[in-house]
Design brief:
Distance between the termini: 21 Å
Shape: globular
CATH superfamily of the largest domain: P-loop containing nucleotide triphosphate hydrolases
Strand content: 25-35%
Order of helices and strands: EHEHEHEHEHHEHEHHEHEEEEHE
Number of domains: 2
Helix content: 25-40%
CATH architecture of the largest domain: 3-Layer(aba) Sandwich
Number of strands: 13
CATH topology of the largest domain: Rossmann fold
Strand order of the largest sheet: 3-2-4-1-5-6-7
Length: about 350
C-alpha cells in the first residue's frame, strides 16, 4: 500500500494538487482514494473531492495524530471496500510532527505493509518571506508550526510558482535550495499537468523505505499555542433569492467576508467556500497573500444554493464569528434575499495530544 501523506500550512494548495494527482492516476488505471482531515466537521475539501468522483474517507473533529484510530479506519475502508492501492491522506494545515505520530506508528504496527512519503506543501511567496527577511504574517508560535512542517518533509513541494515572475522564481530557488539542501524539492504549479506528473513520479518511484523516521524535537507548548491562536469557523448556509441570483449573492457574500477580515488586519490561513446548486459545484479559496484561487468560470444561476464556508484565521472566535454574521446580514439586505444558517461552529483547536508518538 502506497500512502502519500500530504502536509503543509493552511492555504498552500494541498487539496487542489491531490485532486489533480488523483485524476492523473485514474488516467493510468490506478485505484486511488483520499482521506481528508480537519478539526471541524463540515469540510469543504471532502465535498470538493466527492464532487470530482473520487473515493474519499474523512477524519473530522480532530487531526490525524490525535485520532489515529479514525485514520486507520479510513485506510481500511478504502482498501477493503474499494480495493484502493494508493491513498492520499491530507493532514490539517496547522498540524506537524507527522513522522512521529503517523508515519512511525503505521510502520511499526504494520511492518512491511506501507510505503509512506510525506510531502509538505508551501506557498512559494510565504516561504520566501519566511526565509529572506524574517517577515511574518502570523505570530511566532504559528510560524513555529510552519517551520517544523518543512523540517520533517520527505519532499518539499514549493507550490504556486505560477504566481511569481521567472526572475522571482530563480531568486527563490537559490534561497530555498540553500536552506533545504538535504531535502527533495519540487517547484510546482498544481494547475499544470506537467507539474502534477513530476510530483506523482517522485511519490511513486523515488521512495521505498520502510524504516522508521527520525523524529523532530517538538515543543508541544509552542505547538499548542500556535494552534490556539488560529480560529476555525465552519458554516453551512442556504441562500434563497426571489429571482435567479443566488449564485451571485454567494459570490458577493464571499467577498464581504474576505474584505472584512483583511480590513481588520487578521491574517488568513485559508478561507474555503463550496457553492452547490444541486447540479454544479464551485470551490473558491482565499489566503492572506492571494485571493480567489481555484476559481473557475461562474456556474449557472439559480434561485437557491447551499454553501459551505471553512475559515481559518488568526483572530479571536467571537471576532471571526461577528465578521461572518455581519456579512450575512448585509448580504441579505443588499440582495433582498434569505440566508438560512443551517449549522455554525467557531472554535480554537485544543492542545495536541497524539494517540501515539514513536521515535525513529
Amino acid at each position: 500500500m502506497k500512502l502519500f501523506l500530504t502536509g503543509g500550512f493552511l492555504g498552500s494548495g494541498k487539496t487542489t494538487a491531490i485532486q489533480k494527482a488523483v485524476s492523473y492516476l485514474h488516467g493510468k488505471n490506478k485505484r486511488v482514494g483520499v482521506i481528508t482531515n480537519d478539526q471541524g466537521d463540515k469540510q469543504v475539501d471532502t465535498a470538493f473531492i466527492k464532487g470530482n468522483n473520487i473515493a474519499v474517507e474523512e477524519v473530522a473533529g480532530s487531526c490525524f495524530c490525535c485520532n489515529y484510530p479514525a485514520l486507520e479506519k479510513g485506510i481500511s475502508a478504502l482498501r477493503e471496500a474499494q480495493q484502493i492501492e494508493i491513498i492520499f491522506a491530507e493532514s490539517v494545515g496547522s498540524c506537524t510532527d507527522l513522522a512521529a505520530t503517523i508515519i512511525n506508528p503505521l510502520l511499526s504496527l504494520s511492518p512491511g505493509e506501507y510505503e509512506i512519503v510525506l510531502s509538505v506543501f508551501a506557498d512559494i511567496r510565504l516561504l520566501v518571506m519566511y526565509l529572506q527577511n524574517g517577515e511574518r504574517l502570523f505570530f511566532d508560535d504559528v510560524t513555529y508550526i510552519f517551520k517544523k512542517q518543512l523540517e520533517e518533509a520527505d519532499v518539499i513541494v514549493v507550490n504556486k510558482i505560477d504566481l511569481i515572475t521567472t526572475q522571482q522564481l530563480q531568486q527563490a530557488q537559490q534561497l530555498i535550495n540553500a536552506a533545504y539542501s538535504n531535502k527533495k524539492i519540487l517547484y510546482q504549479n498544481s494547475l499544470s499537468a506537467q507539474s502534477i506528473k513530476a510530483w506523482v513520479d517522485v511519490l511513486c518511484n523515488s521512495f521505498t523505505n520502510h524504516k522508521l523516521r527520525e523524529v523532530l524535537n517538538i515543543d508541544y507548548d509552542i505547538y499548542g499555542s500556535g494552534e490556539a491562536l488560529l480560529t476555525w469557523l465552519d458554516e453551512d448556509i442556504t441562500i434563497t433569492a426571489q429571482s435567479e441570483t443566488a449564485v451571485e449573492v454567494a459570490y458577493t457574500l464571499i467577498d464581504k467576508i474576505y474584505n472584512s477580515i483583511t480590513a481588520g488586519g487578521y491574517p488568513i490561513g485559508h478561507i474555503k467556500c463550496l457553492i452547490d446548486t444541486g447540479l454544479e459545484q464551485q470551490k473558491i479559496s482565499f489566503t492572506s497573500i492571494y485571493t480567489k484561487i481555484n476559481s473557475t468560470d461562474k456556474i449557472e444561476e439559480t434561485t437557491s444554493v447551499n454553501m459551505l464556508i471553512n475559515a481559518r484565521v488568526q483572530a479571536q472566535p467571537h471576532v471571526l464569528q461577528h465578521i461572518v454574521s455581519d456579512a450575512i446580514k448585509q448580504a441579505q439586505v443588499d440582495a433582498n434575499c434569505m440566508i438560512t444558517e443551517n449549522k455554525l461552529s467557531c472554535f480554537t483547536p485544543g492542545y495536541p495530544r497524539p494517540t501515539h508518538r514513536v521515535a525513529g
